[in-house]
Amino acid sequence: MKFQSTRGLERDVKSAEGIIRGIAKDGGLFVPDSFPNLYEILKKNKGLSYEELAFKIIKEFFTDIDENELREAIDEAYNNRFKPELNKNYLELYHGPTCAFKDAALLFLPQIMKRAKKSLGVNEEIVILTATSGDTGKAALEGFSSVDGFKVVVYYPKNGVSAIQERQMATQEGENVKVFGINGNFDNAQTGVKKIFGDEKLKEELKKNGYILSSANSINIGRLVPQIVYYFYGYFKLIEQGKIKEDEEINVVVPTGNFGNILASYYGKQMGLPINKFICASNENKVLTDFFQTGIYDKRRELILTQSPSMDILVSSNLERLLYEGSGRDGEEIKALMDGLMANGVYEVSSKVREFLKEFYGNFATEEEVHKTIKNVYEKENYLMDTHTAVGKTVWEKYKNETGDDREALIASTASPYKFPVSICNALGIDISNVDDFGVLKELNKATNVDIPRNLKGLDKKEILHNEVWDKDEMLDALLSFLK
Ligand SMILES: *Cc1c(COP(=O)(O)O)cnc(C)c1O
């Protein structure tokens, strides 16, 4: 399998190269040349372990990586560290070291990058730069910590992540990791990282010093591909639990930020998975809702800080990959759209693309609706969900009300409720006025009896190792201070 850029200027790129470089030379994102129809084969052996399933899917894309090496990478990434669980309609993707779904991809990425490096004979140290709205950062730190031949630098908006998320990052151990708070929001952080990546002179300079920059954000094809796996896994679990019959179409509901997770489900459909609608759920930063309703992508608005901070995003980078498919893989058209976004903050897609987008449904949930959903579902279904998942559930209900389409759905449950415990306590009316951020975990546990994930217990007693804050215009200086 070879990869091509969404902006048309690169073709026939090996997966190892796409994984190492992260982004194409023309600024586009790498996409596979085709999508093998695996569903027909996989449905004949549904009982596979998560690792086996992952191997069968991922090996179709990363064909230039030795199969034994790939197996090893998958085992090192997932064995006893990550597995999804299907609970009612909720595909819980947060049973990993950082308690959010990004573990699925970010445990795997370092392992595949290591092998990609080897297959290309790259000797330089790879510096992973990541802007995070909370979850990516910690997951990247966990994944890359102490992996030979890599450094990780994480930028997060100083006031844009939860106390728990901040503490998770601040306490990260490992000689090769660094965390910077940024005075600015997530978009500022992401723009800053993109700017560093766009600086060819800087890259040359770094290369002379033995460093190559790369990304762990969800635009990396090494992160996107492993995410396809859990939609297959979830679909087969629905069959196993008797909720659907083989080949029955389902809907997929995804609380969406950078559009990586929902895109992975779309790729799943291209591989044969029977999916009817992709329900794209946003919080009050509803750029995508407006986009699916009007065909106009307009980021010219204030970013709102919500209680689902991992979705507080105005530019959903992976949408570019969907538009590429929608345009009939017309790189020039995509380049024009993305140039428009860069220059004016807005673009409008063609009527052909709009037609294509009908497979998607976009809507959003207000903060008040999120609270109500958490409370209702807890009281009626005895199921405790986090704020991001509640955005998904709220939008699913809206979709069903609007369309009457109530077929089975997989709702991506993207974080443990314990990652956003203040919001959950407020939603449930649990009194937390007399406890600190970490006491809140215990209060939530007392009130609900739902176990605190092992990886969040004792976080308050861990030593703070990272506390630097830099201005949003100083992100490069911060990086260079670490690489010195
Ligand atoms: C990252 C994240 C999302 C959004 O996923 P995308 O792939 O960026 O759309 C949703 N929920 C949680 C908890 C996340 O960490």
Automatic annotation (TrEMBL):
<keyword id="KW-0663">Pyridoxal phosphate</keyword>
<protein>
    <recommendedName>
        <fullName>Threonine synthase</fullName>
        <ecNumber>4.2.3.1</ecNumber>
    </recommendedName>
</protein>
<feature type="domain" description="Tryptophan synthase beta chain-like PALP">
    <location>
        <begin position="93"/>
        <end position="404"/>
    </location>
</feature>
<comment type="similarity">
    <text>Belongs to the threonine synthase family.</text>
</comment>
<dbReference type="GO" id="GO:0009088">
    <property type="term" value="P:threonine biosynthetic process"/>
</dbReference>
<dbReference type="InterPro" id="IPR037158">
    <property type="entry name" value="Thr_synth_N_sf"/>
</dbReference>
<dbReference type="GO" id="GO:0004795">
    <property type="term" value="F:threonine synthase activity"/>
</dbReference>
<dbReference type="InterPro" id="IPR029144">
    <property type="entry name" value="Thr_synth_N"/>
</dbReference>
<dbReference type="InterPro" id="IPR004450">
    <property type="entry name" value="Thr_synthase-like"/>
</dbReference>
<dbReference type="GO" id="GO:0005737">
    <property type="term" value="C:cytoplasm"/>
</dbReference>
<dbReference type="Pfam" id="PF14821">
    <property type="entry name" value="Thr_synth_N"/>
</dbReference>
<feature type="modified residue" description="N6-(pyridoxal phosphate)lysine">
    <location>
        <position position="102"/>
    </location>
</feature>
<dbReference type="InterPro" id="IPR001926">
    <property type="entry name" value="TrpB-like_PALP"/>
</dbReference>
<dbReference type="InterPro" id="IPR036052">
    <property type="entry name" value="TrpB-like_PALP_sf"/>
</dbReference>
<feature type="domain" description="Threonine synthase N-terminal">
    <location>
        <begin position="2"/>
        <end position="78"/>
    </location>
</feature>
<dbReference type="Pfam" id="PF00291">
    <property type="entry name" value="PALP"/>
</dbReference>
